[in-house]
Amino acid sequence: MTKQISELALLTPSQMNDIDREAAKTTPVIQLMENAGWAVTREILKRYKPCSVLVLCGPGNNGGDGYVVARLLAKAGWPVYVTAIAKPKMRSDVARVAGQWTGTVISNSASYIEKVGLVIDAIFGAGLNKALDLEITNLLRKAKHVVAIDIPSGVHGETGQIMGYAPHAELTVTFFRAKPGHYLLPGREYVGELVVKDIGISSNTLSKTSTRCWLNEPGLWKIPTHEITDYKYSRGIVSIVGGSQMTGAAKLSAHAALNTGAGLVHIFALGSADCYSASSPCFIVDKDSLEIALQDSRRKIWVCGPGLLPEEVNEILPKLVAAKVKIIADAGVFQSNQSELLKGASIITPHIGEFKRVFGDIEEDKVSAARLAAQQTGCVVVLKGADTVIASPDGRVAINQHASSQLATAGSGDTLTGIIATLLASGLSEWESACAGVWIHGEAGFLCEHSWPTAEDLAQNLGNARDNAAR
Ligand SMILES: NC(=O)C1=CN([C@@H]2O[C@H](COP(=O)(O)OP(=O)(O)OC[C@H]3O[C@@H](n4cnc5c(N)ncnc54)[C@H](O)[C@@H]3O)[C@@H](O)[C@H]2O)[C@@H](O)CC1
Ligand SMILES: [K+]
Q1: Which of 122, 214, 353, 402 could disulfide-pair with 149, CB 3.0 to 4.6 Å?
Q2: What is the number of structural domains in the chain?
Q3: How far is the CA of 193 from the centre of ligand 1 (A)?
Q4: Is the CB of 123 under 6 A from ligand 1?
Q5: Are residues 78 and 47 in the same domain?
Q6: Which ligand gives the minimal distance to the CA of 123?
Q7: Which of 223-232, 327-336, 366-375, 410-419 has the lowest mean pLDDT?
Q8: Is 273 in the pocket of ligand 1 (CB under 6 A)?
Q9: Residue 65 annotated in ligand binding
């Protein structure tokens, strides 16, 4: 079921801190901690049979949640041991919940950790501020089955980077909203099953922080569905520049556009038009010059780059920019250190290698890098990968997890370009087209019957994928 946009918000640890502080005005922190502990315990009871449990508690509120889980599991009859990785501050809320633990405390759990059925990682959560030290790393390395509270210790909540070491959790229970680090790689690989639980914090508190990041799921966009009054021009026209030598890319983009529901697809061929005309009776292959094509005011959406040589891009892209059409730029447009070339495009879709070629190394994390590139170029940036990041020049970011490695096939990027162009031609904004396009691309992969689809197989599923994105 489509979610509300506010449910898709991803909060950085510092934004979550703001929310926690706001929530604490009406609900005491100790109560929030109890609620968090309850939430984690319930998820454990749903999934695991009673077994021996070791709860590793850190010095902060994450540790506090751990003490509550220990108490509740022990109450349910499970054999529970606690190790305080660091002592909580005296008279703090954490110290109070720690004081309520009357069961076994093990000061050195190195010999136990391999033997227990389950390890609860309550060492660090949102407060992680440096790499895990060797002692904690060596201990965690021995854990076999881990449930993480909030986030596996060592995964940075904002960037998904691993701070020294992190355990591979089977289950992570987080609170209120997920964090970017749950979905960004490499963090995502450490989280296991992710469950987001309500712990009594009102959604209204979201207004106390400026949410700029969302999970890329239906709810972030509104896609037009079939209307009785539709005609081909109302569904939108996509124009694609076809290379003179590498002709497959434009054809794949064009097929994807038609299958996603474009009303009309033109190919403007830079070399011989024949190979394009022969490939499908549904394409219109331009016979006239680019200038004449651009005079048609209905042709506002152009794909430029797939299958184009650098010299072809250098000739065509400035003309498209000058004509003020909306451009989805990919592949051939990504030339060494040439970010200036991209100004005037609407959406760019580089993979990591192309991104680095244009913008240089990713100094921080993918989200910051994509945001910066979006501000620099004025384009919506789709930084492609297993954790595709979509960034808008106004600072909005979406992180996509709705994709599988089925998409890692030749021509898959050309397919994505055609999908995004079609959505843009249907009247969606650049941001919505990019977000929805990335999701539909992933969905088309999931809908493939066989596990090793070609780009043409993906195209077959685009109509259904679009319908699913509109639900
Ligand atoms: N604040 C609230 O209202 C709530 C917070 N909750 C929990 O509280 C957590 C956040 O609590 P905190 O802000 O106390 O943060 P943490 O519990 O994550 O830990 C913070 C403490 O650990 C230290 N630390 C961080 N990284 C370290 C490292 N690598 N090595 C050694 N020490 C390190 C910090 O200096 C600080 O003293 C959340 O992850 C969540 O689990 C929940 O209890 C729900 C309510
Ligand atoms: K944790």
Answers
A1: 122
A2: 2
A3: 21
A4: no
A5: yes
A6: 2
A7: 223-232
A8: no
A9: yes
Does residue 254 share a domain with residue 197?
no
Structural domain contains residue 375: yes
Chain segment 332-364, per-residue pLDDT in tens = 999 988 999 999 999 999 999 999 999 999 877
Q: Is the CB of 64 under 6 A from ligand 1?
A: yes
HEC assignment per residue over the chain = CCCCHHHHECCCHHHHHHHHHHHCCCCCHHHHHHHHHHHHHHHHHHHCCCCCEEEEECCCHHHHHHHHHHHHHHHCCCCEEEEECCCCCCCCHHHHHHHCCCCEECCCCCCCCCCCCEEEEECCCCCCCCCCCHHHHHHHHCCCCEEEECCCCCECCCCCCECCCCCCCCEEEEECCCCHHHHCCCCHHHHCEEEEECCCCCHHHHHHCCCCEEECCCCCCCCCCCCCCCCHHHHCEEEEEECCCCCHHHHHHHHHHHHHCCCEEEEEECCCCHHHHHHCCCEEECCCCHHHHHHCCCCCEEEECCCCCHHHHHHHHHHHHHCCCEEEECHHHCCCCCCHHHECECEECCEHHHHHHHHCCCCCCHHHHHHHHHHHHCCEEEEECCCCEEECCCCCEEECCCCCHHHCCCCHHHHHHHHHHHHHHCCCCHHHHHHHHHHHHHHHHHHCCCCCCCHHHHHHCHHHHHHHHHC
Q: Is 175 in the pocket of ligand 1 (CB under 6 A)?
A: yes
Which of 16, 22, 62 most suits a substitution to test ligand 1, by most atoms within 8 Å of the C-beta? 62
111-155 confidence digits (pLDDT tens): 899 999 999 999 999 999 999 999 999 999 999 999 999 999 999
Which CATH number does the domain housing residue 283 bear? 3.40.1190.20
What residues have their beta carbon closer than 5 A to ion ligand 2?
121, 125, 148-149, 153
Residue 246 lies in a domain: yes
Shared domain for 169 and 265, answered yes or no, is: no
- With respect to residue 101, please indicate whether it lies within any of the assigned structural domains: yes
Range of the domain at 24: 8-211
State yes or no: 388 annotated in a binding site: yes
